[in-house]
Each structure stands twice: as structure tokens, then as C-alpha cells.
Specification:
Cyclophilin_TM1367; Cyclophilin TM1367-like domain-containing protein; mainly beta; Cyclophilin; 9 strands; TM1367-like; 9-stranded antiparallel sheet
């Protein structure tokens, strides 16, 4: 399962993993929302209300996760305001659902709060 994440002219391909959470996101596509930023993370609300699955307190560069308290999808492209040295730490535990496999993560640094994001199947 692969999806496109589009913000303006920025386009990233994400490979979803084999979790129940990733399958629920896939079934809900297409999704459109407004982006919020937090350090080197973008996130956006979804209509999904899912329980935590395999919660992680830190993530890897380029990982995409579902954050249950905000019912949001998050894309991590660097440290957040609470990251320690050499780590990427979400605000609270997340369920990793995939990873960016194509496109420039660095371009996410130019994304601003309120921009429109679209998530569709490849």
C-alpha cells in the first residue's frame, strides 16, 4: 500500500506498513486537511478515531505515524521541540504506519500552518 502526500507542489510517496492502523488510514482515503507544524514535524487531523497500536516514544527520520490524542497523521522530518540529542520525539506516543520512500523530506521545512494537504492512493 502506497499513498501520495501532496502540499502545494510538494509531493511525497509513503509506503504504509502492515498494521491495522495503516489499513484503516488506507480505507479512509482520500483525505484532505489543513497542516500544522511543530518543530520538524507536520501533522493534520483525520476523521479516524483509532486506539494506540504498538506505541512508540521516538521515531525515525521520514516515518509517518498516527497520533491518537489528536486523531492526526504526523510526518517526521527532523527533531521536534522536545527531542533529545540524536532523537526524534513525538509530543506523546504514536503508532508508526509507514515511511516516506520518495520525495524530498527537506522540502517539508517550507510548509506553513494552514496549508492544504491531500493524501491519496498511488
Amino acid at each position: 500500500m502506497q499513498v501520495w502526500l501532496e502540499i502545494g507542489t510538494l509531493k511525497l510517496k509513503i509506503a504504509l506498513n502492515d498494521t491495522l492502523t495503516a489499513r484503516k488510514v488506507w480505507e479512509a482515503l482520500p483525505l484532505e486537511a489543513e497542516v500544522s507544524t511543530w518543530g520538524d514535524e507536520i501533522y493534520f487531523a483525520t476523521p479516524l478515531e483509532l486506539l494506540q497500536e504498538k506505541p512508540q516514544e521516538t521515531v525515525e527520520l521520514g516515518e509517518v505515524a498516527y497520533w491518537p490524542p489528536g486523531q492526526a497523521l504526523c510526518v517526521f522530518f527532523g527533531p521536534t521541540p522536545i527531542s533529545g540529542p540524536g532523537e526524534i520525539r513525538p509530543y506523546s506516543p504514536v503508532t508508526v504506519i509507514g515511511k516516506v520512500v520518495e520525495g524530498e523530506l527537506e522540502a517539508l521545512k517550507g510548509v506553513r500552518d494552514g496549508e492544504k494537504v491531500r493524501l491519496t492512493r498511488v
